[in-house]
Design goal:
Layout lengths: L1 E6 L1 H10 L3 E3 L21 H13 L1 E7 L5 H7 L6 E6 L3 H4 L14 E3 L9 H11 L6 H16 E3 L7 E7 L7 H4 L7 E2 L2 E5 L2 E4 L4 E4 L5 E6 L15 E3 L1 H9 L2 E7 L6 E6 L6 E2 H4 L9 H11 L10 E6 L2 E6 L2 E2 L1
Helix pairs in contact: 2-5
Length: about 325
């Protein structure tokens, strides 16, 4: 089975090159109602349930996929106004399907859309049991079967306004309270890293909050270029091509590449299979590669730090200001 993920242009290039998938925390999704199905509880101690739900949301990572690559609204919202990509992943893999490595595997991950939030009778203990499961607590088979219904309601219920997304989720446990993180994350189906950078000595900052980039490379089957994707109609000559790696990867991995266009007789998008040459990157499509805006103090310190150093085109210089202190890195080393 193939499921799809929408990307902006630069994010899509990165996803194609890495062949890895990013999961996110529910609090970093664009819908603030995530995981609030049980907030309309008749329980007298509703406040305790709300507090426990906050902890549950911190304990999981969620991947959102969709069943369609041709939704114009999805392209507008998640495909950077039709300039990006949709990537089709083969999800018939244990990374997606295993109940050992997924709190909610792909075959149970269809999101349920509803217009109402029906009052529930869930108890504090029920919610606490969901929390225990999200931190890897052991349950016997019968207990887990009873609990799984509530788990799916919590993570897979959304308002009906989102129905156009046709969303399918995979939910993973972030970490375990019962074994060390090193042991829990040693398996490639649990191993991940954050995308971060150093902004000061021994102080890091994530590029995207709540993002976990899982280590295992995924099988890509299809690649769709949005109707405004910069690679469409570029046709660079061989002398203009600066990066053939995606084209070569597409050929080696047998990706099917499609170019999207607008159907003149309807409001729909249509896909036409195209050559992998479409994935050749030229200097023009690389766009703006560097830009810096420095304050006077930063420029002065940068000049002092680089005084006497001979730089080449391949050297990378970065300047960050943290707690009013200016830090300069040369090739990712503070100087």
């Amino acid at each position: 089975m193939i499921l799809y993920k929408y990307y902006g242009f630069n994010a899509g290039l990165a996803a194609l090159r890495s062949q890895r998938l990013g999961f996110r925390k529910p609090d970093n999704f664009n819908d603030p109602f995530e995981c609030t199905y049980f907030s309309n509880s008749d329980n007298e101690t509703e406040g305790k349930i709300e507090d426990k739900i906050k902890e549950i949301k911190k304990s999981v990572d969620i991947l959102s996929l969709t069943r369609t690559p041709l939704n114009p609204l999805m392209w507008a919202h998640y495909g950077e106004e039709h300039t990006g990509f949709v990537i089709g992943y083969d999800v018939d893999d244990e990374f997606f399907t295993s109940r050992e490595f997924n709190l909610i595997p792909v075959d149970e991950g269809d999101v349920l859309y509803t217009n109402t939030k029906t009052p529930t009778q869930i108890t504090n203990q029920d919610v606490h049991n969901i929390y225990l499961k999200t931190v890897d607590a052991p349950f016997d088979k019968e207990e887990l079967n009873n609990l799984s219904v509530s788990i799916r309601k919590m993570f897979l219920t959304k308002h009906a306004t989102w129905v156009y997304e046709e969303e399918v989720r995979i939910v993973k446990i972030s970490d375990s309270f019962f074994v060390t993180s090193a042991v829990f994350q040693s398996h490639p189906f649990r191993s991940f890293n954050s995308i971060s950078r150093l902004i000061a000595p021994q102080i890091g900052c994530n590029y995207i909050d709540g993002l976990k980039l899982y280590t295992k490379k995924q099988s890509i089957k299809e690649v769709f270029l949005g109707v405004r994707n910069p690679l469409i109609n570029s046709n660079p000559s061989e002398s203009q091509v600066t990066d053939n790696s995606l084209k070569e990867l597409a050929q080696n991995e047998s990706w099917q590449v499609y170019q999207l266009s607008m159907d003149s007789s309807s409001w729909s998008l249509k896909a036409q299979e195209t050559d992998t040459d479409m994935l050749k990157i030229s200097a023009k499509e690389g766009g703006l590669t560097s830009e810096a805006s420095l304050g006077g103090k930063e420029a002065e310190i940068l000049a002092q730090k680089l005084l006497g150093k001979k730089l080449t085109d391949n050297d990378k210089v970065s300047v960050t200001t943290f707690n009013n202190e200016v830090h300069v890195q040369l090739n990712e080393t503070f100087i």
